[in-house]
Design brief:
five-stranded antiparallel β-sheet, 387 residues, mainly beta, Neuraminidase
């Protein structure tokens, strides 16, 4: 009897370690709500932002909305406006709290209805833990970058294709021409995933350009007051980098596959704190051409949330690695499945680990009934238990 009780207790305790809860931040609606970003505030509240409107880069009513989750009431506030430049679409916002407990908010304003006309804007606040409404901003500026060595890297990468005949050659020639154009090469870089602060205090803000299908890092060594551009991450359609740091200091960027089949997440490495990057190459991680995010947990494990498909966005999975990305031993679906309903989309995840160890994910939640942003709270044991 004692043995049975002990076994029952052990099973009960093990089950109690599994954690999952999820809810829509606001009800489904006809409006386009997409590309969220989440942070935990020092007081334990959550702040999430996303873009909202009747479309994306060609819809002039698109603005940035946000909502707060109160750790006491366990409720989400009504959405409120975080940024709006009338007459211009604003998309892909990100939130980040640095080691000095300052809140960064960055987002692109689309100047001329094309992604390559994006102009990055950002704000900083130290007064952001209000019960409702937007933070009080103390600083605002633009981030404009001069990509390091972009013309030389593009010639090296695209040159062989440019000497061929056909559509691929024409694209390569245009890519080289753009890289030699100062205006084109300096415009159109914008955000998607969380920044990363290095032990030195350097802040890396991952960005990308749809004009090139390259990733890049905006680098700040003065606490976000000024920014310089890294070398671009060149490859066959590698955008929206998500960056983690290995124990040996190597930076690893996983990128969305915006190129030809096979559709796999790309990876690139930096040994000099984000200034130069290896040419992006395919991994074995499926990617249908959509955003992913990978973060390092405090115990050293990595968690990646992504669409585990080659086509479509109807399956969203969380994967865990205990060997810094060499293998991904555990997977569990947050929404949908590879064999599930293809009429819905669960995509563009934003991932953090809270101070209590819980993992929070927000993502775009599209169904035939409407669109919203969904929030889920999980832990590693829940992922490791599998589907």
């Amino acid at each position: 009897m004692r043995l049975f009780a002990a076994l029952l207790c052990a099973l009960t305790c093990a089950a109690a370690t599994l954690e999952y809860s999820g809810e829509l931040i606001f009800p489904l609606e006809k409006w386009h709500n997409h590309s969220s970003s989440i942070v935990e505030l020092p007081n334990g509240d959550l702040l999430v932002c996303w873009f909202h409107g009747s479309g994306e880069r060609t819809a002039d009513d698109v603005l940035i909305q946000a909502a707060r989750w109160n750790h006491t009431t366990k409720q989400w506030s009504a959405p409120f406006t975080l940024a709006d430049t009338p007459g211009f679409p604003e998309t892909n916002p990100i939130l980040y709290i640095d080691s000095r407990q300052r809140l960064f908010f960055a987002w692109p304003l689309i100047v001329a209805h094309k992604w390559e006309t994006a102009l990055m804007k950002y704000r900083i606040s130290t007064d952001y833990q209000q019960a409702s409404g937007p933070p009080k901003w103390e600083f605002q500026d633009n981030i404009v970058l001069i990509p390091k060595d972009i013309a030389a890297l593009t010639k090296d990468f695209a040159g062989p294709a440019a000497r061929e005949i056909g559509p691929r050659a024409e694209r390569a020639k245009k890519q080289i021409e753009h890289a030699e154009d100062e205006y084109f090469s300096r415009m159109g870089w914008f955000t998607r995933t969380h920044p990363l602060e290095l032990p030195s205090g350097r802040i890396l803000m991952p960005m990308y350009s749809d004009g090139y299908s390259y990733g890049i890092m905006a680098i700040s060594d003065d606490g976000g007051m000024t920014w310089t551009g890294s070398q671009p991450i060149v490859g066959e359609g590698c955008i929206q980098p998500s960056v983690v740091r290995k124990k040996d200091g190597t930076l690893v960027a996983y990128l969305r596959d915006n190129g030809p089949p096979p559709k796999r997440a790309h990876v690139s490495y930096s040994k000099d704190d984000g200034v130069s990057w290896t040419r992006a190459r395919d991994t074995e991680i499926l990617n249908p051409g959509t955003s992913l995010e990978n973060i390092r947990l405090r115990n050293g494990d990595w968690i990646m949330v992504y669409n585990d498909l080659e086509q479509g966005r109807y399956s969203l999975v969380a994967a865990l690695s205990d060997d810094e990305g060499a293998t991904w031993k555990w997977r569990r679906h947050l929404d949908g499945s590879p064999s599930g309903d293809k009429t819905s989309q669960y995509h563009y995840p934003s991932v953090i680990q809270a101070r209590d160890g819980a993992i929070h994910v927000t993502y775009s939640y599209f169904t035939p009934q409407g669109k919203a942003i969904k929030h889920v709270r999980i832990n590693e044991d829940w992922v490791k238990s599998g589907d």
